[in-house]
């Protein structure tokens, strides 16, 4: 992200309550991650210590300090989803994306994550793509879902 784009984002939030977190959220949304040089730029522009910017950037799970794909796929591996077939759903996601958990493809299309309960046990297996919940996933259903995300 270039400094002109950063400055536009900063200027939209400067001086308002929660300006730092709103700036970081907008950078994360547009760029899909928070590059370290962007964090330095934000610290200088808002005249706050870099250590404080870094602390906020690492505090919230919504922020990433490593590059992410355009589409973030989270497959639940909690016990309830596991009992309902999450392993086969995960295998289908791995096959379609060519990724293992924690990886991002070379074209920045997908980042694949897995984790414990996503809070929708009764309708598992659960997959979240870019914040949208997809319930009762099967290998065939998840393949169709992933095709919707270019
Ligand atoms: S175990 Fe998967 S949503 Fe709860």
Cα-atom Rg, whole angstroms? 18 Å
- The name of the CATH topology of the largest domain is Glutaredoxin
Given as residue ranges, the uncertain stretches (5+ residues, pLDDT < 50) are none
Strand arrangement, largest sheet? 2-1-3-4
Query: Which structural class should the secondary elements be placed in?
Result: alpha+beta
Give a structural overview.
47% of the residues lie in helices and 12% in strands. It has 150 residues and is α+β, with helices and mostly antiparallel strands. It folds into two domains: 3-59, no CATH class; 71-147, 3-Layer(aba) Sandwich (Glutaredoxin), CATH 3.40.30. Strands 2-1-3-4 form a four-stranded mixed β-sheet, with helices on one face. Helix 1 crosses helix 3, helix 3 (36-46) crosses helix 4 (50-59) and helix 6 runs parallel beside helix 7 (139-147). The longest helix has 13 residues, at 19-31. The protein is elongated, with a radius of gyration of 18 Å. FE2/S2 (inorganic) cluster binds at residues 76, 78-81, 117-121, 124, 126.
């Amino acid at each position: 992200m270039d400094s002109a784009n950063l400055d536009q984002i900063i200027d939209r939030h400067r001086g308002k309550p929660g300006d730092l977190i709103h700036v970081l959220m907008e950078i994360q949304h547009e760029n899909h991650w928070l590059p370290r040089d962007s964090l330095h730029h934000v610290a200088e522009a808002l005249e706050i210590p870099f250590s404080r910017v870094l602390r906020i950037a690492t505090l919230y799970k919504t922020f990433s300090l490593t590059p992410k794909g355009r589409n973030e796929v989270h497959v639940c591996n909690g016990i309830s989803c596991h009992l309902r077939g999450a392993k086969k759903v995960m295998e289908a996601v791995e096959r379609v994306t060519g990724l293992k958990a924690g990886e991002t493809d070379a074209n920045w299309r997908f980042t694949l994550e897995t984790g414990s309960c996503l809070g929708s046990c009764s309708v598992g297996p659960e997959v979240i793509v870019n914040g949208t919940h997809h319930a009762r996933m099967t290998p065939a259903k998840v393949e169709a879902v992933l095709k919707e995300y270019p």
